[in-house]
Amino acid sequence: MLIGILLLLCVVFILAEIIIRKLGASLGGTDEVSGYVMAIVTSWGMGFALLELSHVRIDFLRGRVNALGRSLFDLLSMTVLSVTITVIAFRSWPVVERSIINGSRANTPLETPLQLVQIPWFAGWVWFAVVAWVTLLAAVLLVLRGEFSRSEAAIGTFVEDEEIHI
Predict the structure, then answer these.
(1) Spatial separation of the C-alpha atoms in residues 54 and 21, rounded to whole Å
(2) Does position 115 have pLDDT exceeding 70, yes or no?
């Protein structure tokens, strides 16, 4: 919900900028602030998208195997995702740390203290990694117990229709 509110506030800010520009003035920094908002909501929104099975996956092989095979493909996919997001989270920290130590500010008229933006951005990546690993662990336990349908519901692909109509 907070992500939606941030995006809505960003839209209002941009609309206000458009209206004020028509009157011959400017708020300034609209592009900078909207970029910050997009970075933050993206990092936080990815964990939510994972739980909603909204991440895109190419699964042409997955659909051709039995329940155990699908579960194994899902576990492989979640493992790769979890490792990748963990690397991103770990590699994001030095950026934040350098900004904190140096007291870095954006090279823009707003001179935004970068740590104000980078800390929530970094926290979103860490949250995504935690969600990915916990989800993967839960799915592994389900597969080990033979509960393939529950595992698929947790980490499988979301299919609206089994058949694609052209």
Answers:
(1) 37
(2) yes
